[in-house]
Amino acid sequence: MTKLVKIVIARRFIMKQMKLSRYLVKASFLQSEIQKILVLSTRSGVLRAFDFLTWTYLEEKRWDLLAKELLQELAADFFIVKENEDEFKTILHENMTHINTSGALYKVLQPTAYCPLGCDYCGQVHHPKLMRPEIQEAILLRTGQELSAHSYQSLRIGWFGGEPLSGIKVIEELTPKFQTLCRERNVVYDAAIVTNGLLLTEYIAQKLIHELGVGSFEITLDGTAEFHDQRRHTKNFGKTFDKIYANLLRLVEQKSADIKVSIRCNVDERNQEGVDGLIEKLAQDGLHQHIYFYVASVYSWGNDAHQLSLARQEFADREIEWLVKMQQLGFKRPNCYLPARKKMVCMTVNPSSSLIDPFGSIFHCTEVSLVPTYERAGGKHVYQAGHILSSQANTPQVDLRGFYKDLGILEYECPSCVMFPTCGGGCPKQWKEGHIPCPATKYNIQKRMILEYLQR
User: Fold this and answer.
1) CA–CA distance, 81 with 74 (Å, rounded to integer)
2) Rounded to two decimals, what is the model's pTM?
3) Is pLDDT of 294 > 90?
4) Which of 160, 191, 332, 445 has the fewest CB atoms below 10 angstroms from its CB?
């Protein structure tokens, strides 16, 4: 037997132990009367185009008819994997490894329980209460202890609400002290804020950027003024769009290149027709090259807001229309049309993350505090995981921390879903509450693949 024959036999034996990954999405279309087979590996995020014959050989595992270099590339990008690999378990393991080695301590803080808006789909109940000084000091003490006990490289603070800018005094009090903690321990400090934008004046924006270390802003606009003001009004039903938009313009004018500004548009059946106009306005005013824009379906926030949502496929189809419009108008692209690998679905699954509300209660989720639906008799909150003034940890009545463990044993769809690597399983709380939180990409991924291929 010649050396060449031995090499061929050995290669065939090795390739017999390989298979196509279960995490592949295929889309076919004609280009110049030639059939293109687009295949996306959701494990790697790589999109490849195949001719019909090559893809047929891959499906039939006729490895010997394919070039060695091609097979090596496909293995590197997880198009083909080992025959005996349980890919779902592999991805879960990779996710947990990523979470446990992230090196970041992440805290979401609600400096106030108040918000000047009365958004009709919000599940929170607001109170004119600021975080008390003793709560602030306890947060600083615990944060310092955590930074000293672990080898964190960074501390990231997320200012959340209510409306966090209604509690700007608390942000001004805490930030210098957080920054001092980080300097003393050679840890990087970073902050982000989710704000309705109503109080984001030029003065406040300058202070947040240059003094208070905020590098990321997320502001919500629910369509043009006609649509936005019907749902994101003040508690006295006053209009808010014009003031928020003027604040946004000034923020973009004064921000540096490393400051990220995202515009979120919450969409349901009532305001879907206002999204196109907002996209056009952002482009006309030159904001489209300086902000990230995305749409999100309205969902249950401890209430029945999900009943107003578009059907999943309908929302996914509309999202494609909006993506095409953004591309035509030259919007800044948030990477690409294709969803990236998501190794941490949200702070819920990260033991180094927590939310502390204005009253000192600790949670593992951003969407349960200030929501009376989750409170029980005697003031007990089903999601509360402790209190900052107590050294005793509390096991919540509804525990979300073990979400990744639950995926393999509970009746979730994730283990059999080709999109799991890109969504990480979706919102753990929504699963617990009986809502299916699958992202729009599950329903429009093939169109996204074609858009990405043509864009390239």
Assistant:
1) 9
2) 0.92
3) yes
4) 332
